[in-house]
Design goal:
The protein has 17 helices and 12 strands. It is an alpha/beta fold. A 5-stranded parallel sheet has the order 3-2-4-5-6, sandwiched between helices. A 5-stranded parallel sheet has the order 9-8-10-11-12, with helices on both faces.
Length: 406
């Protein structure tokens, strides 16, 4: 275990609606010698801060009921004393949100899942008197859970042509497509795309606009001259999405626009709009994708619980209690077709599951969250069934594992 200490205890407020997340973060902070207070939403946090402006730092989740993190930071920053004294840190799974969160008034971000090393680096950065020693290797430096893992896909899935000259963008887009159960061929410019379409039939084309040799609009015009590509969906993938730009893309023969930088959610919406996989294809791709996620990542779980068996068991017990409540609440929300409640519950379950290394359960919840954002309420029943089955698998594995002997 790494040895950390603070010469003067830091007072830190944790704001997160998920009890498991609060337990994980609180345990890490206490291990680092900090004094910890908890709040379950932004409103409660604002009230605590205004009543007792003695916190050195606030760790604030973004997505919460009653008052979310963005609303809370606005309230906090209107108080001059708080603005000067207290560091407010956004808890987020997406590092790419850092600029927007900084503009909203946050001092920094702490990316999920939360581990001791990340917290220590954050505290060292903002408090010069906080120090930590060099690490040793009591446990492996395991990779963090990833929501973008390659999977084995069925060859009869709809075929996509990705036209992109930037190799990094190609990797990002391909990983996202694989995540969603699709294969893709890649060409690096418009000329190659036109040639590829002459040799093979694609069901969807994702077309970059600015490329060497031939840009996306010219390539689209040529592809549309093929009789078998008159009705094939061609989607512009670009950061230029002004009304004038979109009109230009439409005039060249493109059907839609997908804004850069790509997100899994936006890509999924486009694929759902233009591609219709058979139920068998969807089920096969889904099973293959989820098989790439661990039911429970033991090494990661030991890491977030600081190699402490008692803390590990306590965390798992809390997780089972909270998840049971969440699944019951989901059933009630599903009966009432309460899309907002289902969105919040799936987001909360996703975060809680990933925070302990229950990656497969977390990924099912993440997929449900995306569908709830897109108001695809017809998928609720299947998600509830999948979540309940995976939760049962997880509990069985927990019971079969001798945690004190590992």
């Amino acid at each position: 275990m790494q040895n950390y200490h603070s010469s003067a205890p830091l007072s830190i407020l944790i704001v997160d609606d998920t009890a498991v997340n609060r337990l994980v973060i609180g345990s890490i902070l206490k291990e680092l010698g900090c004094q910890v207070t908890e709040a379950v939403n932004g409103k409660a946090a604002v009230e605590l801060i205004l009543a007792n402006n003695a916190y050195d730092m606030v760790l604030m989740d973004i997505n919460m009921p009653i008052m979310n993190g963005l609303e809370a930071i606005h309230c906090i920053r209107t108080q001059e004393a708080v603005q000067v004294h207290t560091k407010v840190i956004a808890l987020t799974a997406h590092e790419r949100e850092s600029t927007n969160l900084a503009n909203a008034g946050f001092d920094d971000i702490l990316t999920k899942p939360i581990i001791l090393e990340r917290v220590a680096v954050l505290l060292t950065k903002h408090f010069p008197h906080f120090q930590h020693s060099s690490p040793n290797t009591d446990y492996p430096n395991t990779p963090l859970p990833s929501s973008e893992q390659p999977v084995n896909l069925e060859s009869d899935n709809p075929m996509i042509l990705l036209v992109e000259d930037n190799q990094v963008n190609c990797i990002v887009a391909t990983n996202m497509l694989n995540t969603l159960g699709y294969e893709a061929d890649i060409t690096n410019n418009g000329c190659e795309a036109v040639t590829a379409c002459a040799e093979k039939q694609y069901t969807l084309i994702l077309m970059d606009i600015r490329m060497p040799m031939m840009d996306g609009t010219e390539a689209t015009q040529l592809i549309r001259q093929y009789s078998n590509y008159v009705n094939t969906p061609i989607v512009a993938v670009t950061a230029n999405t002004s009304p004038a730009d979109i009109m230009l893309y439409k005039q060249s023969g493109m059907d839609d626009v997908l804004a850069k930088p790509l997100t899994l959610e936006r890509l999924k919406m486009v694929l759902d709009k233009y591609l219709q996989m058979t139920p068998e294809q969807v089920n096969t791709a889904k099973k293959a994708y989820l098989a790439g996620f661990a039911v429970l990542d033991h090494l990661f779980l030991k890491k977030v619980t600081l190699n402490n068996p008692k803390l590990l068991v306590m965390l798992l017990e809390r997780f089972i209690i909270e998840t049971t409540k969440q699944l019951i609440a989901m059933e009630h929300a599903a009966k009432n077709l309460d899309q907002h409640k289902l969105l919040h519950l799936s987001h909360s379950l996703k975060g809680g599951a990933r925070s302990i290394g229950a990656n497969r359960l977390g990924e099912i919840a993440a997929q449900m969250e995306m569908d709830m954002e897109a108001t695809k309420l017809q998928t609720i029943s299947q998600y509830l069934q999948d979540l309940q089955q995976e939760f049962l698998n997880l509990q069985t594995l927990m019971q079969q594992t001798p945690w004190n002997e590992e």
